[in-house]
Amino acid sequence: MILVDHATRTFETPSGAFTAVRDVSFTVAPGRFVSLVGPSGCGKTTLLGMIAGLVPLSEGRVLLGSRPVVGGVPPDIGYLFQRDALLPWKTALQNVALPLTIRGRPAAEARSKAVEWMRRVGLAGFESYYPHQLSGGMRKRVSLATTLIYGPAVLLMDEPFSALDVQTRNMMENELLDLWAETRNTVLFVTHDLEEAIALSDEVIVLTAGPGRIKASYPIPITRPRNVVEIRFREEFTRLYEQIWKDLRDEVQQSYARSTQL
Amino acid sequence: MKSSKATRARRSSDRARRLGGRLVLLVVLLGGWEVGARTRVIDPYFVSLPSEIARTIGGWIASGFIYVHLWATIQEAVIGLALGILGGVLVGVLFAFSPFLAELFQPLMVVFNAMPRIALAPLFIVWLGIGLASKVAMVVSLVFFIIFFSTYAGLREVDVNLINHVRVMGGSRGDLVRHVLFPSALTWIFASLRTCVGFAVIGAILGEYLGADRGIGWIVQYGESLFNSNMVLSGLIVLMAFVAVLDGSLGWLEQRFSHWKQKPL
């Protein structure tokens, strides 16, 4: 379970204090898939960083399970970054095996598990490739395998598919849902794409334009298993989209106006 | 990437053409030199002749004269290179992990690096004698700074994203060093290693040139004092061969450690 309680983060900048996230509270129940949507610059990444222990909180607290996140990265957490974070000097297989190597597992076990995960993300045969030899979509799959191999209870995803083309992206979203149906981690998924958020999640939380606050939260009662491409044509999907978009639109406009003001 | 038969064949024919081209170039240059000197278009007193140089070097090898000198220069360059790399890496790591020390020593490092080493060489000889130690010191003074700056940069410029990635999957400080910082620094160090080899040889020769009783630099200097251009050039040719071997083996080593890198298109 993720519990974020009155979390605030202020940065000191040359032009004074800047509040990235203001007084945000929400919970994600174990095994749920929740998305955070908001316009760019609304503090989504900062919020994930706070939960992962990478960004210290100015006020408030974060609990994972019953343990508060203070002074470092909590155990049992996975983070899929927006940009590629694969180690360029390791092969795909070595990258996938790294979390197990770090946990001191025997090399043979780490290797065989990594081979298994490479197969599960559809990359059997690419084990000895280096990241620069793989396409963007393939690198994302490797990243996903790297994150899922050690079975973290909580999975944080920061716009993981935003750099991919639409077709690859839809494929990856479906694959993510298939994998998640087996692993059932608690997922917090950050995106600026409302369609993606609705298609994937059990719940969508809308954030305001920076400083990010919670504007509204919507349960997504669409049954699983889902196919992210096909459910977009369903009537309940369109209805939810319209409903949430009304909230999001104002924030996007505000964020856009601000970015063009200068 | 797996290469098909066709690209492999093309690569090997490219290679053959390149080698052939180099050979032709060498023959033209040496032949021109030889013919020019024999027909007195250029004065052999000043530039000698390739055939003469070959005979001299052959004589040195046959009599065993060259070995003591070549060995002296190799020792100086290699020991100096090893110590310079070791020192540069250690100090680079130390400074990268201690911003206080880095701040404290930064002006000193810049000033020392800017100092012309040729002016230092006589001092090294006064301090350490005309033997091995003064030449090694000379080489270290050149190599140390190059390696220090690349190690420091390699550790400071690591992609934060990579560090966070390994931290979030549960990596300790030791894991970060082993899986992220060390490989990152290694690529920077390798990039500057070949420059270092050139500087190591320059340092050794410079030291010998200014005061020694052996070494290739000593041969060159002795030849100059006799106005014997043949001896000077023979010494330099031996030196070039030595550098080519050293550089080639480093190139091979570098390739083994950077096979993961993307080749430019």
CATH top-level class of the largest domain in chain B? Mainly Alpha
Q: Tell me the structural class of chain B.
A: mainly alpha
Give the CATH architecture of chain A.
3-Layer(aba) Sandwich
> In angstroms, what is the radius of gyration of chain A?
19 Å
Strand order of the largest sheet of chain A: 6-7-8-3-9-10
At CATH level 2, the architecture of the largest domain in chain B is Orthogonal Bundle
Helix content of chain B: over 70%
The ordered string of helix (H) and strand (E) elements of chain A is: EEEHEEEHHHEHEHEEH
Q: Assembly type of the shown chains? A: heterodimer
Mean pLDDT across residues of chain A: 90
Task: Provide structural commentary.
The complex is a heterodimer of chains A (262) and B (265). Chain A is an alpha/beta fold. Chain A has a single domain (2-76, 152-261), classed as Rossmann fold (3-Layer(aba) Sandwich). Chain A is 37% helix and 24% strand. Chain A has seven helices and ten strands. Chain A has helices at 44-51, 92-102, 107-120, 136-148, 166-183, 194-200, 235-261; strands at 2-13, 16-28, 33-37, 59-64, 67-68, 77-80, 154-158, 186-191, 203-207, 214-219. In chain A, the strands form two sheets. Chain A has a six-stranded mixed β-sheet, sandwiched between helices. Chain A has a four-stranded antiparallel β-sheet with strand order 2-1-4-5. In chain A, a hairpin with a 6-residue loop joins β9 (203-207) and β10. In chain A, α2 packs parallel to α4. The longest helix of chain A is centred in the C-terminal third of the chain and has 27 residues, at 235-261. The mean pLDDT of chain A is 90. Chain B has two domains: 1-42; 49-257, Orthogonal Bundle (MetI-like fold), CATH 1.10.3720. With 265 residues, chain B is an all-alpha fold. Chain B starts with a helix and ends in an 8-residue tail after the last helix. Chain B has helices spanning 5-38, 44-47, 50-63, 65-97, 99-114, 117-128, 132-156, 160-168, 173-210, 216-225, 229-257. Chain B has eleven helices and no strands. Chain B is flat and about 75 Å long. At the A-B interface, β6 and α2 of A face α8 and α9 of B.
